[in-house]
Write a structure and sequence with these properties.
Acyl_CoA_acyltransferase, Aminopeptidase, Gcn5-rel_NAT, globular, GNAT_YJDJ, five-stranded mixed sheet, alpha+beta
């Protein structure tokens, strides 16, 4: 089920509220046009439902739309990029 992913550019994260909890993917800027996608978290109750993939996809679509590159520091992001070759050319 597609979720409404919220991009909080001030807090440098993509997140989705899940009841009293949140799932999130955080990032930082290492250079002007390079994002380090560094951390993904999904509460245990909500794991294995594709939420992490949706967060990563939202982040990578942001990278693509801005003409940026990304560093997959988070293993979840790295695994997603391996499974989706359309984003590999954006990897730094």
């Amino acid at each position: 089920m597609p979720l409404e992913i919220i991009h909080d550019e001030e807090d440098l994260r993509f997140y989705v509220p899940l009841g009293d909890e949140e799932a999130e993917m955080t990032y930082s800027y290492t250079e002007d046009n390079v994002l380090d996608l560094d951390y993904t978290f999904v509460p245990e109750t909500y794991r294995n439902q594709g939420i992490a993939d949706q967060l990563v996809q939202a982040g990578l679509e942001f990278v693509k739309a801005k003409g940026f590159r990304f560093i997959p520091s988070c293993p979840v992001v790295e695994a997603y990029a391996q499974r989706h070759p359309e984003y590999q050319s954006l990897m730094d």
